[in-house]
Amino acid sequence: MSRIGRKPIPLPKGVKVQIGEELKVEGPKGKLTVPIPPGIQVRQKDGTLEFQRDGQQSRAFHGLARALAANAVQGVSSGFTRELAIFGIGYRCEVKGRIATFSLGYSHPIEFYLPDGIDLKVDKPVNNLTPLILTGADKQQLGQVAANMRALRPPDPYKNKGIRYANEVLRKKVGKTGAGGK
After folding, report:
1. In angstroms, what CA-CA distances link 175 with 67, 86, 110, 170, 179?
2. pTM for this entry
């Protein structure tokens, strides 16, 4: 039996759950829906959600369904954050409404449209490092938006300039001068 699928999900105060064809989770941070695969039953009792499967054929979806539901419950109750950092002289970001404008060393500024449910906060730059803080209720959507932002100017291994995750470790490569010769 799946170890993850067996764990019950505690429901925090203020989170409401509707069980039907799909699981609808509503809380202070928003509403999310989670698909329930065939062969998986969801029960709500004593302030927790429990997942059970019919047999071995639905075994692969047991832990997946529970993990997606746990992410939805955490997302609507406390939310998720993802931190990025812009590193480089002259690289910056400004947010006006739902549009983030990036200056990343290209000949033009890049406008990035933030989807509904995702918020961006730009902190004050420190030592050519500008922190970006993304927040949202949907973990998958938040990760995708962060990956799309990072793709605007991925970190350069020679100069370490670009957009990176805050906890990302980069190894700086040596350029031509340090290659050594003979």
Report:
1. 44, 22, 29, 15, 7
2. 0.88
